[in-house]
Amino acid sequence: RAIDTFKEIFTFLTANPLEIVTLFLEDYVKSPNGLTKVFTDSGLKKFWFPVENMPLGGRDWPLVKDMVANNQRLIVFTSAKSKQNTEGIAYQWNYVVENQYGDDGVKRDECSNRGESALLTDKNKALVLVNHFKTVPVKILTCEDNSEQLVDMIKTCYLAAGNRWANYVAVNFYKRSSGGGTFRAVDKLNGELLCGRDDVHAC
C-alpha cells in the first residue's frame, strides 16, 4: 500500500535531517484529495516542499542548505495535471524535461525526447531527468547498462539538453553494475553541477 511506502520515507527523512527526497508519481488516484490524504496520514506533509515555492520559467531552485533549514525536504511531482490546482501537487511537466525511457532510450549516442516532455532544450524547465533502463528489466544485463553506458548516456543527454547536466537519473536495479555504476554517475553529475569537476569528491 502507498501509505506503507510513504511511512518508510517518513522514517528515512526523520532519521536523516540533511537528506532530500524527490518522488515522481505515475498518478492514477481518482478520488478527490485521495493522494493528499495518504501524504497527510503518513506524516509526510511535515516535510512538504510547497508548489508555490517551486520556481517556474527555468529559474534556479533553492539551495539544499535552505531547503534543509526550512525542513522542506520532500519534493513531489505528479503526472496528473489537475492535481497542481486541486491538491497543490506539482505537475511534473511544468518543471522537468526527460529523455525517452525503455529500449528506445538506451541507444548509444542518442538522447531522444520523451513524448510527454517539453523539448530537452526547453530551458523554461529547470530540471533534467535522464532515463536509462530497458523496457523489460533483466537484473544480470543491468550490470552493463548501469556502468560505462550510463556515464556515456548522461554525457550524451548533457548535449541534447542544451549543455545542461541531469538533476535526476532513473535506472533499474541501481545497486547492480560492473564498475562504479549509478553511484559513479551521480558523483559525476554532482561534481559537474557543484563545481564543474568530473567527480564531486574533487570539489
Automatic annotation (TrEMBL):
Sorted alphabetically, which InterPro entries does this protein's record hold?
PI-PLC_domain, PLC-like_Pdiesterase_TIM-brl
Please give the start and end residues of each transmembrane region.
none
SUPFAM superfamilies per the UniProt record, alphabetical: PLC-like phosphodiesterases (SSF51695)
Pfam families associated with the record: PI-PLC_cat
PANTHER family of this UniProt entry?
F21F23.12 PROTEIN, PTHR13593
| Protein name from the UniProt record | PI-PLC X domain-containing protein At5g67130-like
Its encoding gene is what?
LOC104755658
